[in-house]
Amino acid sequence: MKKNVAKTWMSIVLTCAMTATLSLTGFSETTENKAEEVATEAEGYVEGTEEIDPSDFPVAVCMDNMNHPVHRIVQMGFLKKAEELGYTDAKVIGTDGNDMSEKYASAEGFAAEGGKGLLMWAGDSSCFETIKSCADQGVIVGTPHFKLQTDDGNYPEGLRFNMACNPVTYGKQIADLMAEALDGKEGSIGRTQNSMNTTENAAQESFLDEWNTLADAGTYDLSKIKVLDVELEGAQVDEAINIILGILQSNSDIIGAFGSCGNSPITWADAASKAGKSDGEIWIAGMDATEGNLDYLEKGKVQALVAQPLYDEAQKTMEYFDNLFRGGEVPMWTDLDAPIVTKDGEGKSGIQYHRDIASEVNEFFQ
User: Fold this and answer.
1) C-alpha distances out from residue 245 to 270, 299, 362, Å
2) Helix residue ranges per DSSP H, 113-164
3) Do 168-306 and 2-165+309-364 fall under one CATH topology?
4) Could you tell me the fold of the domain covering 168-306?
């Protein structure tokens, strides 16, 4: 299985594909909402007891940008869990670029060939028609990472389950960490995101709300710190570095930065270096515990990473398929945790945990 999958990859290119094309209805986090989510998951899961032969159930993960390092983590999590559960017909389908029509055509082909379980990696409404079509052909379709809902607040027709981490939660957590680190200092906070999409919007709005709450409460002395408006850095690393360099040149007093794009740790750190800043002079937080970002965290160029639960959500998706194939039930929505990784963190909040996953990915797809 590994050899067949490995043939579909070429060179690794870091992009922000994972956060660039979302179309969501928004997120919120209150005690009441969180309690409801937990109750929904508990009530919605029923263990399946039917005896099946997993080899009779083809499963696949469908993606664009199949070569993306973030996407490889998802693929490995899905394929390893499938293998562990006895599913011998598990594969990655889609496209090595970002041609959505090619990706969706591969999903349709999988359904036509008798596919049974499909992890659809897509975050906007362009996938809705394909999800319905595959479901109509008997495929169970689940989507991790992106909260998929229609304009009227419903799940797209045919989607069997959905799971993701909450950007409101990690936006707040980053604000808490940065405020503590910059307590009593003077300067500005820079903020960037890839594009104006609901996930990144929610993360940045949550960051600002929490920052203002902490400032108003006097939890930390933030009276001499100004939070700048969000600017777009885009998905291309070189272009993003130049954009951020321009921000730094216009705001030479920047002492903190939160970029909600997967490349933000590197783009902010490299732009800071070009602006003559020493490592750590700007407190930088960004998205994703990919190998390059972990390097920068370990070197002190970056202070915090939001580790979206890529591996865990892929494994859980496969576990949900298995349970459904066995006649069980799973919740429509599952809320996931995204640990904040720091240099001195431990477990899933530590560098080594994510280093191990990155190394495993390289070995798995060699």
Assistant:
1) 9, 21, 32
2) 128-136
3) yes
4) Rossmann fold (3.40.50)
CATH superfamily of 2-165+309-364: Response regulator (3.40.50.2300)
Distance CA 139, CA 106 (A): 13
Measure the CA–CA gap between 55 and 38, rounded to whole angstroms. Answer: 33
If phi > 0 it is left, if psi is from -120 to 50 it is alpha, else beta; for residue 231 that is beta
Question: What is the distance, to the nearest Å, from the Cα of residue 43 to the centroid of all Cα atoms in its chain?
Answer: 26
For residue 43, the model assigns a pLDDT of: 65
Please list, in sequence order, all residues whose beta carbon lies within 8 angstroms of the beta carbon of residue 238, skipping any fewer than 6 positions away.
none
CA 136, CA 120: separation in Å to the nearest integer? Answer: 15
pLDDT of residue 280: 96
Helix (H) or strand (E) holding 304, with range, is strand 304-306
CB 196 within 8 A of CB 24: no
258 pairs with which residues across the strands? 191, 285
Closest CA to 353 of 336, 337, 341, 338: 341
- Stretches where the chain sits below pLDDT 50 are 1-26, 28-41
Q: Is the dihedral of CA 131, 136, 141, 143 positive or negative?
A: positive
Neighbours of 49 (CB within 10 A): 9
Beta-bridged to residue 192, according to DSSP, are 231, 259
pLDDT at 6: 37
Q: How far apart are CA 2 and CA 220, in angstroms?
A: 51
> Would you kindly state where each structural domain of the chain is located, as residue ranges?
2-165+309-364, 168-306
CB 156 within 8 A of CB 134: no
Query: What b/e sequence results for 13-27 when a residue is b if at least 16 CB atoms lie within 10 Å of its CB, and e otherwise?
Result: ebbbbbbbbbbbeeb
Tens digit of pLDDT for each residue in 39-78?
444 568 999 999 999 999 999 999 998 988 788 999 999 9
Q: pLDDT tens across 301-360, in order? A: 999 999 999 999 999 999 999 999 999 999 999 999 999 999 999 999 999 999 998 888
Residue with tokens 């979206």: 308
CA dist 84 and 90 (Å) reads 11
